[in-house]
């Protein structure tokens, strides 16, 4: 059965359209048509103004809905995370594992692979964040798990990529602690390697980029900053035209001016929004456990007992809102940073990240005050945050 979403501005990923209907059938988008030309036999879903945009894609999600993935490496926890983030407009994500034992990481990757194999919509793959970090830049990651990468780690990560068709595996590591050729082994096999929690010097990052490193995890945070004589990790990231940078826009992780500097330095399309969200998003519980330690949310900020930032408490609609109203980015570009650009980075932009015929019907509708009222995942419509 065809359905037509009407009554809202439509952002296609490229432009805004007024007075148009968005027609979906099954899992796919069928067409965009002027409302005056809409077939009267098609069931209409009326929306009260606001914007319909491509569903948001979050490449760094530690938890949501009360579930923290590293603590609960099961498909059920992944579904709980999806359900927790969906009211914030996220329709696809990478469940993210923080530093832990190899056994925990293997169990987490298997859970994601099982979820994808079972047809769970909205899961693109997995993000393994750690444990191959620099101790001085570990942030909230527990020091007892930080270690050097071994060949056995490379072997199982490579096998995970091959486990099924189009299964995305992202690995965040400190490139200065990788032996020459290790990053090349991973990237040649299809693992997406990003730099993060790193104290690398500029030259070490450049060497990693030459081995296929293609991204930077939560730019500015937990990495060597730029100075006049040492560009550091941040300088290497901003100079390189081909790599991608995730950024947490929650008013705590990055200053608005620093975000604007990064956006000016990188080619358009190479910066994307992430939440780095923890289990409190989409949950009434405002505390959770990491490594047996309780993390509390206060005023939208998460910190551990050492006072270190421990992820964020925002959803993607919050990142879009703050990127637009606080940083000062045009709304269309903020929406691209939340959907099209991460889709391009993960090479799924042939079916996600745009509103166009034959694309998957992954959509978000939000009001002018950034309240999500409807999402669509593979044609499945769900209402959110409705009054009454």
From TrEMBL:
Keywords: Carbohydrate metabolism, Hydrolase, Metal-binding. It is an enzyme of class 3 (hydrolase). It comes from the Bacteria. Residues 52-380 form the Amidohydrolase-related domain. GO terms for molecular function: N-acetylglucosamine-6-phosphate deacetylase activity. Its EC number is 3.5.1.25. Pfam families: Amidohydro_1 (PF01979), NagA_N (PF22643). Belongs to the metallo-dependent hydrolases superfamily. NagA family. This is N-acetylglucosamine-6-phosphate deacetylase. It comes from Cellvibrio fontiphilus.
């Amino acid at each position: 059965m065809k359905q037509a979403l009407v009554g809202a501005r439509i952002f296609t990923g490229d432009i805004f359209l007024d007075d148009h209907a968005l027609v979906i059938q099954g899992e796919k988008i069928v067409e965009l048509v002027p409302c005056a030309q809409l077939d009267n036999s098609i069931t209409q879903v009326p929306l009260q103004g606001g914007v319909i945009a491509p569903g948001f894609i979050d490449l760094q999600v530690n938890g949501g809905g009360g579930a923290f993935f590293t603590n609960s490496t099961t498909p059920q926890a992944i579904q709980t995370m999806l359900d927790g983030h969906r009211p914030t407009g996220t329709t696809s994500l990478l469940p993210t594992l923080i530093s832990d034992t190899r056994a925990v990481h293997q169990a987490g990757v298997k859970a994601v692979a099982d979820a994808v194999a079972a047809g769970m919509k909205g899961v693109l793959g997995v993000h393994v964040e750690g444990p191959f970090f620099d101790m001085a830049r570990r942030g909230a990651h527990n020091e007892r798990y930080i270690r050097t990468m071994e060949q056995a780690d490379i072997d199982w990560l490579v096998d995970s990529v091959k486990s099924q068709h189009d299964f995305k595996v992202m690995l965040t590591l400190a490139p200065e602690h990788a032996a020459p050729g290790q990053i090349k082994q991973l990237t040649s096999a299809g693992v997406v390697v990003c730099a993060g929690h790193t104290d690398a010097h500029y030259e070490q990052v450049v060497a990693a980029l030459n081995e296929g490193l293609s991204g930077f995890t939560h730019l500015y945070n937990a990495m060597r900053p730029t100075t006049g004589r040492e560009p550091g990790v941040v300088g290497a990231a901003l100079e390189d035209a081909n790599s991608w940078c995730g950024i947490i826009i929650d008013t705590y992780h990055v200053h608005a001016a620093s975000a604007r500097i990064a956006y000016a330095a990188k080619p358009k399309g190479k910066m994307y929004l992430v939440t780095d969200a923890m289990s409190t998003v989409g949950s009434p519980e405002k505390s959770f456990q990491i490594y047996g330690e309780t993390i509390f949310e206060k005023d939208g900020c998460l910190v551990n007992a050492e006072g270190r930032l421990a992820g964020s408490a925002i959803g993607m609609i919050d990142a879009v809102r703050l990127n637009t109203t606080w940083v000062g980015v045009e709304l269309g570009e903020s929406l691209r940073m939340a959907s099209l650009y991460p889709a391009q980075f993960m090479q799924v932009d042939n079916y996600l990240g745009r509103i166009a015929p034959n694309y998957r019907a992954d959509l978000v509708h939000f009001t002018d005050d950034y309240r999500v009222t409807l999402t669509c995942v593979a044609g499945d419509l769900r209402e959110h945050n409705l009054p009454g």
